[in-house]
Amino acid sequence: MTVLNAGILSxxxxxxxxxxxxxxxxxxxxxxxxxxxxxxxxxxxxxxxKNLVGLGYWELGFRNLTNSKKPITKAEDIAGLxxxxxxxxxxxxxxxxxxxxxxPMPCAPRAHRNxxxxxxxxxxxxxxxxxxxxxxxxxxxxxxxxxxxQTSISEP
Length: 156
Known about the structure:
Blueprint: E1 2-5, H1 6-9, H2 28-35, H3 38-45, E2 56-67, E3 82-85, H4 89-97, E4 101-104, H5 109-118, E5 123-127, H6 128-131, E6 141-155
Parallel strand pairs: 3-4, 3-5
Antiparallel strand pairs: 1-6, 2-5, 2-6
């Protein structure tokens, strides 16, 4: 059994990439209603052709920005920042369109810590649960961005 986020799972079933679209859900309750409803079930059913059985959705919360350079209070503040993002074309394109330099990196704690310490990317777009980890020594300004939902899928 494993837990995969929708961005990674979209490599198996591209339709899961919809969950990475910015501004898709206004609230966690709205996201739950979609994933727990007919639409979410229809996506889980697409996994059977890949020999995966989707058991349900695991909420990671909304993605947020953290950085060591400056507070981010509006979209324009992102311009010029190197931001570590998951290896999803949607995240890469979105942050580049906002004027940032999106740096795609694996979703691994060591990769994040090393990117902050090496200067490869001093900012990151990540779930709230990740921000709370003790390794956040490289991030001085956490910023809530409730526009970026992050959903995980659990399968055996």
